[in-house]
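chain below, 208 aa
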Amino acid sequence: MTLPMFPAEAPVLPEIRPARRIKGTVSAVLAALGGDFPTEEVQSLTMDFDGVVGDYHAGPTRKSGSREPWYPRGTEIRNERQISVVAPDELAIAAAGMGIDRIEPAWIGANLLIEGIPLLSMLPPRTQLFFEGGVTLRIDGDNGPCRIAGASIAKNFPDRDETSLALSFVKAAKRRRGVVAWVEKPGIIANGETVTAHIWEQWIYPAG
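prediction:
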């Protein structure tokens, strides 16, 4: 139902949850410096406004893919997926769902492994990540698991059927594959830094 432009009475607002902050810790920093999306651990991440300097996903723009069916594939669009952030507890749950002992962050192209923030993959869009060293990242949203990342995992378990294991990642890691973010304030992120997630006011938009 569309609300009138000038209603006689102001509409009732939905429940609004106040802003809050949650602290976590960076437990690994990784970069994809080899021309493909899998990453490897590094000493620190140097960030500019394009993302991690030298990383496979760096750049102000990117090509659209299956996540953007409203554009022809390959359309140049803003790169809101500069940084991949994951949590060890969520990866452990996803691994259990796949029947494997672990999922290494590097296998799925993660740049940051962050501990201590519950349900990291559920952090809402617009959340800011303030790092102790001065970097700020802005979360675009959760990172949907795909078969490509699943195939990267499956390569590390040669005793399992590669196709079925790759496909199982899509279900097992749904809403547990972390978030993607872009650089709001550049600088350097080092392993062991404290990070504070600033979650803005939240509500459910009620109009149908």
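Residues 20-199 form a domain with the M1 Pyruvate Kinase; Domain 3 fold (CATH 2.40.33.20). Helices lie at 88-98, 147-154, 162-172.
thats it, cya
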